[in-house]
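Hi P.,

Sorry for the delay on this. The queue was packed all week, but I finally got your sequence through. Input first:
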Amino acid sequence: MLLLILARPDRVQAITVDDLYVAEVFVTSQQDKQLKSGARAGLLQVLVRVSGTTEVQQSSLIANALRNPASYYFQYSYQSTDRDFLIGDKVVPARILRLHYEPNAIARLLRDSGFPVWGSNRPSVLLWLAVSDEQGRRLLSESDSSEVLTAVNDLANQRGLPLLYPLLDLEDEAQVSTAEVWGSFLARVERASDRYNPGCILSARIQKSDSGQWSASWSYRVDGEWSSFSNIAPSVTDLVSGIVDLLADSLAARYALDSSRSIIELRIDQIDSLSDYAEVTRYLESLTPVLDSSVTEVRGTEVLFRLSTEGQTAQLIKIIEFDEKMMLINTSNQNTLLNYRWLK
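Then the structure:
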């Protein structure tokens, strides 16, 4: 029995996250001791970003790896900053230590430790942020100088969440107002978001009290369902970290690959030439879930591929949908045979 999957014109927008395996940490010198402690912090940063969960810190295997971080990076450099550290009564200039970690080594460590691996092609997060602070109440644009935006960008980068900002042009203004975002009129927010085709929507009411305390009410939509979250914090960083961690954990639970293995067959039509065949093969082998691929049958413009994969079949389907290189026509009831059309 075949289950028909209709192609959706409103496919969500996925974004490739750059520097997924690059970490930046502050250090006070270029001494070996600072390098080792910085590399340890950087390794943990990358492990959290790639796995999609902060629970990596609880693994004994990862704890052992953190004691010897030099085994996992292949390049590092230093950069001066305009920041200072106060150590005792001495002011010390801060440097940024930038480390490049080896993707295969990171993936192997996560899999050996029982954690998933989340690829670089990730669902975008569209931000509708209504803020009330010293500058008044407004919707934040990508160019806003608000400290809220700085915190959101920094923390989203740490968790590997690709962000989208509304243009806030006449079309957006006709769809939703600052007051409606502030009042959590989510149907209006969702309608205004349609033009961006985001993977996830985050709408928020954020305010700073006269005493300097921050509070927020967040609403976020993942897989078509809205959820809510509220928090209060003494700093904007603490406030934003709550929702960023919640979103990253939620998305990683859907898209990060677990260590389960399976064999899947893909029948792909519209492969009309050797160049098409070569391009399809390269594409399949580039997919994060695919461990190995082989051709088992060629019939006209159809080619049957046998894939050894890890993670769930639904995750592979979602990743291919993001890339928009192939269209899913139908799938078998057991999800072991997927029929696709190659898009030129």
